[in-house]
Amino acid sequence: MSANEIPLSRPDISPLEEELVLRVLRSGRLSIGPMQEEFERRVAERAGCANGVAVSSGTAGLHLVLLALGLGPGDEVITTPFSFIASSNAILMVGATPVFVDICPTSLNMDPRRIEDAITPRTRAILGVEAFGNPASMHEYARIAARHEIPLVEDCCEALGATSRGRSAGSFGRAGVFGFYPNKQITTGEGGMIVTDDPRLADTCRSLRNQGRAVAGTNLFTGDPSPMNTGTWLAHDRLGYNYRMSEVNAAIGVAQMRRLDELLAKRRRVADLYMERLLGVPDLVLPNTDEGDAFSWFVFVARLAAGYSRQERDRVIAGLRQHEIGAAEYFPCIHLQPFYRDLFGFEPGSFPIAETVSDRTVALPFHGDLTEREVDLVAQTLELMLQRENLSRG
Questions:
Q1: Is the per-residue pLDDT at 376 higher than 90?
Q2: What beta strand segments (E) does 133-234 contain?
Q3: 42, 46, 174, 184: the active-site residue
Q4: Counting runs of H as helices and runs of E as strands, what totals does the chain give?
Q5: DSSP code of residue 134
Q6: Cis bond leading into 346, ω under 30°?
Q7: Rounded to the nearest 5°, which phi and psi values hold at 278?
């Protein structure tokens, strides 16, 4: 990376993160400790939920929730084809089948009007994704799930801090799952968090993340009563996984949660700069939210207007990169990924709205420390690339 490059994303790390990580390293307690407990409490409180279960990734969290709900072979889970692939992979990981429905062209989330038609006697859950931090339609998903007496699992990995009609992301389903990869609103390096009001579901996930150990008894290291450990370290009640979060990762998360409002405000400032700068560009469709909803800005994804082809979009991205500006397609449709096409036989045209959107998306550099000058440079270069495409059309 050259000194002039504007990267696609960058984590926001302060002296507080360094301080808490050093505190953990000096404590000698690197796993299953007080940082994890504080991190779980802070994220659960922000989501408006009673329980938090820290895990090694958002993908691990989705996997454990689906396992804890008893999903398996023969079951169907309704979800979106326009997402990071982990949302659907987690369904396959428990042996269930993802059933895709097309998206709303404005929110980019599943179109709730299409969900009812996809429900069959084998439907066991709805897995809703808040694309790019947009909470639109979560209320509708919850109503549909309640009407059919099936759980809603909220993949809010991209939406920490988002709200809809006064409710926080993570609170709409039987459980929600956040992700903390370095490009997210907060990061732990790698990590995730399950949030839920269901104590039994939370305890099952705590056991599953910890090699199937029972959630009872005393803390192995201190002898104190603990809801997160077992009295007998080598007793295992069920098949489990090593999906624990380390104390080092949790320490970074605690620091980031203490700074959450600051981090969200910095990202919102950058998003506002992009919106102001690009609003008058006729060849772009910019992000928008429903009235009463508040975005949590994970990425800034613009779309090329109708009439642009995927090849033209790809040339725009390549041109931005040649000018040392990070850019990417967000997201390629899941059902057209090679593995899914081989497994299920999907062909182009299966979900036309998602495919049309996917072919025209351009993720621009986005993090809280972008300057107004950098945003202006990105916008100028993007406009230049669009002008070049228009000229090449003749």
A1: yes
A2: 152-155, 163-164, 167-168, 175-179, 192-196
A3: 184
A4: 13, 13
A5: -
A6: no
A7: -105, -5
Question: What phi-psi label fits residue 108: left (phi over 0), alpha (psi between -120 and 50 degrees) or beta?
Answer: left
Residue 184 annotated in active site:
yes
Question: Strands, DSSP E only, in the chain?
Answer: 51-55, 76-79, 97-100, 123-129, 152-155, 163-164, 167-168, 175-179, 192-196, 284-285, 293-294, 300-304, 361-364
Write the DSSP symbol of residue 103.
B
pLDDT at 217: 46
Q: What is the pLDDT of residue 2?
A: 66
Identify residue 343 by its one-letter amino acid code.
L
CA distance 159 to 299: 10
User: What are the chain's domains?
Assistant: 15-101+109-258 (3.40.640.10), 260-392 (3.90.1150.10)
Phi-psi region of 154 (alpha: psi -120 to 50; beta: other; left: phi over 0): beta
Q: Contact at 8 Å (CB) between 367 and 13?
A: no
Burial category of 197 from C-beta neighbours within 10 Å (exposed 0-12, middle 13-18, buried 19 and up): middle
| Section 193-220 average pLDDT | 86
Name the band, by pLDDT with cuts 50, 70 and 90, for residue 215. Answer: confident
* 266: number of Cβ within 10 Å: 18
pLDDT digits (tens, 9 = 90+) for 74-101: 999 999 999 999 999 999 999 999 999 9
d(CA 296, CA 291): 14
If one counts every other C-beta atom within 10 angstroms of the C-beta of residue 314, the result is 13
**pLDDT-based confidence at 64, cuts 50/70/90?**
very high
pLDDT single digits (tens) 263-312: 999 999 999 999 999 999 999 999 998 888 999 999 999 999 999 999 99
Return the pLDDT at 1.
55
Arithmetic mean of pLDDT over the chain: 94
Cα separation, 328 vs 324, whole angstroms: 13
